[in-house]
TrEMBL record:
Keywords: DNA-binding, Transcription, Transcription regulation. Pfam families: HTH_5. CDD domains: HTH_ARSR (cd00090). One of its GO terms (molecular function) is DNA-binding transcription factor activity. This is Transcriptional regulator, ArsR family. Transmembrane segments: none annotated. Signal peptide: none annotated. Residues 15-112 form the HTH arsR-type domain. The keyword Cell cycle does not apply. It comes from Rhodococcus jostii. InterPro entries: ArsR-like_HTH, ArsR_HTH, HTH_ArsR_DNA-bd_dom, HTH_MetalResp_TranReg, WH-like_DNA-bd_sf, WH_DNA-bd_sf.
Length: 123
């Protein structure tokens, strides 16, 4: 195992400007409860993808509003989609979820410095 591999990137070193921008767009998109639920519905749907027709009825929102939220999730790089006939099918982009979780991941518990991390972080 690499030294410091258990540490969140936030603890190991500062994020680059580009990476911070990408992460901020994803976290901002997930800052809305409807979008967070939409991502969860798509991710947990059988087969890992969901037709917009399957998820729209879960919400007391108009179809254009659902489409707007799905577009925001796509623009943030969290979802991708494909039109099949008259319906659009969505799926989660696994690498995006990996980025979000990796930046916050710690060996266990809340983000704190471990002995392995403190050796690499300047005081």
């Amino acid at each position: 195992m690499e030294s410091g591999a258990c540490c969140s990137p936030l603890v190991r070193e500062p994020l680059t400007e580009d990476w911070a921008g990408d992460l901020a767009r994803m976290f901002k998109a997930l800052g809305d409860p409807v979008r967070l639920r939409l991502l969860s519905l798509v991710a947990s749907h059988a087969g890992g993808e969901a037709c917009v027709c399957d998820i729209s009825e879960t919400f007391d929102l108009s179809q254009p509003t659902i489409s707007h939220h799905l577009k925001v999730l796509r623009s943030a790089g969290l979802l991708d989609c494909e039109r099949r006939g008259t319906w659009v099918y969505y799926w989660v982009i696994p690498s995006a979820l990996q980025q979000l979780s990796a930046v916050l991941l710690t060996e266990s518990g809340p983000a704190v410095l471990s002995e392995a991390c403190t050796a690499e972080v300047p005081a």
